[in-house]
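We close this part of the discussion by returning to an individual protein. The amino acid sequence and the backbone structure tokens for this protein are reproduced below:
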Amino acid sequence: MKKSKAKISPCLQPAPKVLVSCRDLNGEENALVVAYCCNCSYDPPMLMVGIVPSRYSYHMVKNTGSFVVNITGKNNKEMYDYLGSHSRKDGDKFAAIHVNTVPGTIISAPILSDCPINIECTVVDSIKTGSHEMFVGKIEYIHADDGLVLENGNIDFSKVDLL
């Protein structure tokens, strides 16, 4: 097949659309859309999320050392769009659209319970990569909707209707 030169840009697509939720040291909660999220180690299991330092949630993650990656399904589109287009600086986004949360099992951050998969992480390192700081999170606990977990404990991603 013939190849054409493409514009240089981050191009690892498709990727699941995720919301990162967090809580600050005073108990204030927030979530934001992150474009950069990927696996970065299988032993121990870790992933990485990139957050621009000017974002409201940046200092929450930086100061607490924890976050939750919430993988969204198609039924989460309205929540995803709202949380990705509004800032916590302007008000409580969770209250504005009635986001359902439950406490993390291991870490002190909210789980967006309407998302099919939620991954609790503890920050073990970070690196500034230009526009973003990449937070490396050790996976501490994974929540998945009933019916998604196979007998061996793996998630059956073919049953997740990803956004």
